[in-house]
Write a structure and sequence with these properties.
Length: 118
């Protein structure tokens, strides 16, 4: 049996971003979106204290996913972002800080308002 080859035309969503945004910006914005998703997951499951390590692991998994999604789903060539190392580091600090800021601020507001007595 012969393998059926995949079509050479790009996926439908690739037409949307190719003319509007650079590949480097796509990796950067994907990283920010995954940081927000990670903070929401950490808050939804109340990952604090000893479970904060689980939140940290979720953050690391989402950092890796935020690099793999543009490469394999959105068809970004690693050379367009300067190679794998530069692409993996692009927006990493901003993503991690956004994750931490959202997680800490919202968790503290929730904790503060939950301890108020009527």
């Amino acid at each position: 049996m012969s393998k059926k080859s995949l079509p050479e035309e790009p996926l439908p969503w690739n037409h949307f971003w190719r003319n509007r945004i650079s590949p480097e910006d796509l990796v950067y914005y994907t990283r920010l979106i995954f940081a927000l998703i990670g903070a929401a997951i950490a808050l939804a499951f109340n990952l604090s204290g000893p479970l904060g390590l689980v939140g940290f692991i979720i953050g690391i998994v989402l950092v890796v996913l935020s690099y793999l999604i543009p490469l394999y789903v959105l068809d970004v060539d690693p050379q367009e972002v300067g190679g794998h190392a530069k692409g993996l580091m692009k927006g990493l600090g901003t993503g991690v800080l956004l994750f931490l800021v959202i997680w800490i601020l919202v968790f503290n507001f929730v904790y503060y308002f939950s301890t108020l007595t009527p």
